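Long-time lurker. I teach an intro course on protein structure, and each term I like to show students one example going from raw sequence to a predicted 3D structure in token notation. This year I'd like something fresh instead of my usual example. Would anyone be willing to generate the tokens for the chain below so I can use it in lecture? Attribution to the forum is fine with me.
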Amino acid sequence: MKRSTKLLAYGLLVGFLLLLVLKTLSVYTDYLWFGEMGQTAVWGKVWSARLAIGSLLAVIFFGWIYPNVRLARRSSAEGITFVGRRLLPEAERTSIEQHADRALLLFAAVGSLLVLVVSSSYWLQWIWFRHAQSFGERDPVFGKDLGFYLFRLPLIEQLWRTAFYFVAIALVATVLVYLYEECIRIAGGLVQSTPKARYHCLGLLALALLLKTYGYRLAMYKTLTAYTGTVPGGASYIHLHYTIPAYWVMIAACVVGAGVCLWGARTGNLRLPGYAVAGLILLSLLGTMAFPSIMRKVRVVPQELVLEQPYIARHIAATSKAFGLDGQRVKLYRDFQVKTANEALTREHIDRNWDIISNIRVWDDLPLEVTYTMQQALRRYYEFANVDVDRYVVDGQLRQVVLSGRQLKLEESKQEGLVWSWVARHLQYTHGYGLCVSPISEVTDQGLPIYWLKDFPPVGNKALAVDARYAGIYFPENVTRELLPYGEAPRAPAARPGPGGPGGPEAAPAVPGDESRPTSDVRTGVREQTPRRQAQSVGNDYVIVGTDTDEIDYPTGDTEGDVHPTRYDGRGGVRIGGLFRRLAFTARFMDLPILLSSLRPDSRIIFNRLVPDRLLELTRGTLVSDPDPYLVIEGGRLHWIADMYTWAARYPYSASIPPASINYVRNSVKAVVDCYDGTTKLYVWDEQDPVLKCYREAFPTLFTRREEMPAGLLKHVRYPMGLFAMQASLYGRYHQQDPRTFFSSEDWWAPPREVYEDRSDRIVAPYYVMLRLPGERKLEMVLMQPFAVRGRENRNMAAWMCARCDPEHYGELLVYAFPKARLPDGPMMIEARISQDPDISERITLWGQQQSVVKRGHLLVLPIEDSLLYVEPLYVESQRNPVPELRLVSVAYGQDRLEWANTLDGALEKLFGKGEPGETTPQPAETPGALVIPSSSIVGELIQSALQAMDEAQRALDTGDLGTYQRRNRDAKQYIEQAQTSLQQ
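-- Reply from a regular --
Happy to contribute to a lecture. Here you go:
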């Protein structure tokens, strides 16, 4: 062997060993992390399954492939005369012969190693198979329990595919060996072989064809999740009457083809097997693709509804059950009467429902995030990356609030001189700190949020008290918002999936010839999505605590150096330990300072910090975590609550949601993660879910009973927006239970449209509101979605749907359908009335002339007793100081009633008159003594702007910013001149 070849071989060997060592060290750090979580059993179960199935198939592969190539190697063509030249000259054969046997052994060994690596990824299918559960229901075509398709079929398919590949590889390898041994020779169009080579190769080909027969049998099962335009999921008329019979014909043809191969081996006629394989390929194209396509156009399309009606009914029933939308889970109230006359809703109704009014949301996510960041981030390394909606008892009243955690944002920017050292990023700036809480319906006189909790350490209302020792957020949520095309929303579940739900992500093929694409017209948002100026993210770096370096807890002064130091006192993280562990973590993070820094053995390294990634890692991808966990205050500590989903892709006859082809989903687990020490609990929320039963049986230590959740956390549980958005979009179509109505789609509902910010025609996403549902006396939190008729999303509402969030009624889905003869106005009709209002238009024009940007908020549709109230906020954001301020709230009712004011109370007073709401009146503004200008006066608006400019000028003068002082004084003068002009007119 040449020297260069040896060096290359040694280099490849060293590289392989290095990768193996790095992988082993990474697996070891995973083991340590699972030990920290108290879930070593989960790690052990996964790796035992990996090694079991991987080793088994690797041994089978070696025991299969090596005897086949050795058998071919022992062949000899001596004494047989061939036509044509030899494959290799004698000199080259002599050189190859020195290494041929070892090369075959190496080929089998390396192949076995690759099989071990690849087949170890089948561990989840192995788990499903071993812990399969029954659904107690059989499919209508093959009569098998639904659990067979979700739990057993995936592994069967993988094993069949593996066996077929083993035979194919053996066939190719033996043919190549026989060609080398000159037992097979090809000269022109003539193929010659020895009897042994002929029997061996054609025997393997016959075996491959016999295995293919079972492949066609498995393909029959896939028709239960196939797609056609008429039946969006499940076997249709074309599948049952043409596709499946074609598969039976192919099974018989493959058996005949295997017989022809064996006959050709016996007679020595090598043309017959070639003709047989070519015929099978042609028959497959004609029989399983062209024939069903032709019959669909000729036989089915002319009378599609008559033939497909029973299969449409199966599809509707299965989809409703798979997504929790059947009659047991959804209550539909038809002909829900809504009064539209102006006198139907009076001030008396408003006062009687003041607990609802005082919880109407006027602060949207995006403007509040920006305002929090501008007012409360206080340092460049903090951000408020998300705003959550929840309810708390404050001052004896149930109030809906918005809250957001102050999280780290260690983004580097060389242009701004922001380059973080290793010590700063990993040892000092280890966590975010504290949070802000505001009532969702109140603003100051300046249009800014009122803070019930803010600053360092968190101060505010005692009902929301947070212990300053545990206000650090060492485990942030993962917030990475996409810059979406306008009106689009990510599909659910929008979480990073793991290996997949039972049945795997592979979707069954559509019927050949069907030009339609498999879609359920489902547009869902995991959270309320809006186009953003830029994507925001929270880093997932590891941090090391318990070192000799003080951590930065929170700033205490005006300069970067004025900080409150702290030392971590929680249980989170893995001990750094000695040299071997430090080497392992260095290999995992590819960060040499871990090995070289002077860390203490009892220092702890915290990684897998982002909550969704942490949960995904803990469950090894068996469950999917909602990407938007929400923050909860309980017992003076901060917790994340994250919804986790079980899902599948093989539920028979159910519609598939792209892109992951999900056709079964349950919110079966609520995960709770302590923000300070990372303690994680997975609470079982759906005891009846067969998929969760499978995982609970496989990983008994991983889950905790629902009854063990602390009461303080239980009252903050809410229905997940991602799941509800998916269900609402599906229900809009699948409430049409009659196959004929479903086929014609005459009553298909869809989310209506609204104007948001400066954009029109945006899909109305679900929103959390505090309501008293029809027939109920108690105020409760619900997740609500309005509906319009599909294709007429800009017109009247057709219905509204809600999910109840409070523990005693959690998960109940209610739908209120309006009489078709009396449909109330839809959101876009109200948006048009707001846009056409001359006073509102005048103010928008005025604000635009003041170098400000006007942005409209979400339009809320609120049922109040037997009427609907529409509320929309409007924000103004200065181009110089981009802090959104709530400047106007529009309130509409009926078909022609619309009023607006600076506050919600003011708008309601103009619309219904002055009332006495009683004890639930919102608290006064945060800035007492501020001058209030009548909102209906243009002059008042200009004077208010002038006063604000003068205040900002004075603040700039106090800080020595003379440029801003002069500029704001000029602005104030311009506002006063415009006011004088308006008075003269």
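Some talking points for your students: Residues 277 and 604 are 63 Å apart (CA to CA). The two ends are 101 Å apart (CA to CA).
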